[in-house]
Amino acid sequence: MKTCIILNPAAGRGAAGKARDELEQALRRARVDYRLITTHARGGGIELAAQAVEQGFTCVAAAGGDGTVNEVANGILAARQAGAGDAALGLLPLGTGCDFAKMFPGFDTSGLPGMAYPLAAGRMTTIDVGSISVESGGLEVRRVFVNGLGAGIDAQVAVEVQNLPRLTGLAAYIVASLRALATYKPAMMSVRYDGKSLYKRLFFATVANGRWQGGGFLLTPSAKLDDALLDLCIVPKLRLDEVIRYYPRMFDGSHVELRQITTATVERVEIASAAPFPVATDGEVLTTNARRVCVEILPRALRVVV
Fold first, then answer.
1. For 133-192, how does the pLDDT look when each residue is reduced to its tens digit (9 = 90+)?
2. What is the rounded distance in angstroms from the CA atom of residue 207 to the CA atom of residue 275?
3. CA distances from 34 to 45, 48, 52, 91, 103 (A)
């Protein structure tokens, strides 16, 4: 399998870049046939992944966090749509959250040697992806996501994480969550999904393909990557005492049992508000002034090497 590694040196607060030599040693020991290139700007992984597909690589691996995975997946699918070829997505989780890789039982996230061997073995599975259209600032942005989309305070958490350069992993997301709770003002939002509708002042609405988000929050505990459905979790504005009581339940997924929380499995979702709201996909901020976002499932749209 001819593999292109796209390394985001800024992932994991720069840890991914510092691990480059160790990464290449692990790839050589695993006898992976690879070429490694690095991103130099946010969003650059999309173009690099598309170019890799055009150049005949059969696997394009994201070495970074969930945001890097998102860019590589978007590049692979853009190249396929343009008729330039196709490739599988490889995973080398070196970022802050790396929630997507947790969805694959047996995938070794403990160190680079274990991460490299699947690229040599070439075993694949096929997953669904979420396709989104976002109206923001009079423009329409189209992307796909592999793990999840957040609209509201969970996207604001992603904004706050960017302002915490010294923290990584779950600690960064916990501190960012507390900051977001202190400043975020929930807006009236409408959520329409599979013939149903809801109009409330919301903390957030999450549309997920995977179970975990934010470095370890089990927001959608029943989600599956290959069921041709997305999992929806809607959290309305809560009182401070409710936030204090319920916040820990997002780590084990028991928050979905609360009467205040709305959950569903859906094929299509539309989220809209008269007030601008932030949107994040796979942990990366897409916009902070969305007015409307539409999400739909693309069944079995992407092959992943695990």
1. 999 988 999 999 999 999 999 999 988 988 888 787 778 888 998 899 888 999 999 999
2. 20
3. 17, 15, 11, 13, 25
Query: What count of other Cβ atoms lies within 10 Å of the Cβ of residue 258?
Result: 15
User: Strand 59-64 and strand 3-7: pairing?
Assistant: parallel
* Paired residues of 272 in beta bridges: 190, 292
Helix (H, G, I), strand (E, B) or coil at 20: helix
pLDDT at residue 253, as a whole number: 97
Exposed/middle/buried for residue 140 (C-beta within 10 Å: 0-12, 13-18, 19+): exposed
Q: For the residues of 185-202, what is the DSSP string, one character each?
A: --EEEEEEETTEEEEEEE
Neighbours of 222 (CB within 10 A): 13
Which CATH number is 129-300's, of 3.30.2350.10, 2.60.200.40, 3.40.50.720, 3.20.20.80?
2.60.200.40
Give the pTM: 0.94
Mean residue pLDDT of the chain comes to: 94
DSSP secondary structure code for residue 282 in this structure: T
Please state, in angstroms and rounded to a whole number, the distance separating the CA atoms of residues 187 and 201.
Answer: 5
The answer to whether 209 and 173 have CB atoms below 8 angstroms apart is no
Place of tokens 């989220």: 271
pLDDT, position 211: 97
Distance of CA 285 to the CA centre of its chain: 10
Superfamily of domain 3-122: Probable inorganic polyphosphate/atp-NAD kinase; domain 1 (3.40.50.10330)
pLDDT at residue 109, as a whole number: 78
Query: For the chain, which ranges sit under pLDDT 50?
Result: none
Token pair belonging to 118? 């699947």
Q: Which region, left, alpha or beta, applies to residue 14 given φ > 0 means left and ψ of -120 to 50 means alpha?
A: left
What sign does the CA torsion over 273, 153, 287, 256 have? negative
